[in-house]
Design goal:
homodimer; Alpha-Beta Plaits; globular
């Protein structure tokens, strides 16, 4: 989770990949969810080609996380990570009412900074 | 903005396109921002090939909106829309500290629903 940051992941040289994860939570066990989310956010930084992650959550509404990777090999490595797999399995059982995952090849990007 | 909905945009038949817009707001004129955002959310529904939009905003933090389109022609039509262009111009002057836009071709997707 990157709620504390105040700068979105910037545009990178294309092509690169985005994993969009959009979810609606159950009421269950918010503390456990937060701890696991924070741990996964640290672990993903060790994946080769990881470029950054943005997260936002509307209180009582949708959560969206977008993780960026240089290539599909990084996404596959993260998908195969045993700690990530276990968290996803647990999440489907306990934390998520619904979610969608969209894996996409970024073809154009742009960053605006007022300063 | 789709904060009120409780279901994320589902997986569609690939390929399709995602426009990820991640932003940090200024302090300025939240009412004007909300009105414009609501108006744009209605307008984009009229774009051919528009598939849906998910939005989330962490209070005091990042906002993420992801709009999905069947093809690049829809994204281009939305980009050329005069009301959209005017809102973006005004937004750069008044509402946004920073933003990133990533336009991406969705190659894999999946939806989970507990029910």
């Amino acid at each position: 989770m990157s709620d504390q940051r105040t700068a979105p992941v910037p545009a990178h040289e294309t092509p690169y990949y985005a994993v969009v994860f959009t979810s609606v939570r159950t009421e269950e066990d918010d503390d456990g969810y937060r701890r696991t989310a924070e741990r996964l956010s640290e672990l993903v930084k060790g994946i080769p080609g990881f470029l950054g992650e943005d997260s936002a959550r509307t209180p009582g509404g949708l959560a969206i996380s977008v993780a960026y990777f240089r290539d599909l090999a990084g996404i596959e490595a993260w998908r195969r990570d045993a700690r990530h797999r276990e968290a996803k399995r647990y999440g489907r059982e306990h934390w998520y009412e619904r979610y969608s995952i969209h894996i996409a090849r970024v073809e154009q990007s742009h960053t605006f900074d007022r300063s």
